[in-house]
Amino acid sequence: MLNAAWGARGVLTAAVVAYSACALWPGEEKRLTYNAAIDAYPNWSPDGLFTVFQSDRAGRYDIYKIPATGGAESRLTSWPNDQGQPCYSPDGQYIVFTWRNVAYDEEVCIMPAAGGSYINFSNNPFYDALADWSPTGDNIAFVSTRARVVRSPGWTFEWIWIQPYPSGPARRLTSPGYLDEQCPDWSPDGNYIAYHSWPSAHTYDVDIFVAPVAGGPPKNVTNSYNVQEFDPSWSPDGLYIAYDRLDPGENPPNTDVYIIPAAGGSPTRITTNPAIDYAPAWSPDGSRIAFTSARDGNAEIYVVCLQGEAVAPASLGKIKALFR
Ligand SMILES: [Ca+2]
Ligand SMILES: [Ca+2]
Ligand SMILES: [Ca+2]
Ligand SMILES: [Ca+2]
Question: Which of 283, 266, 277 is CA-nearest to residue 230?
Answer without folding.
Answer: 277
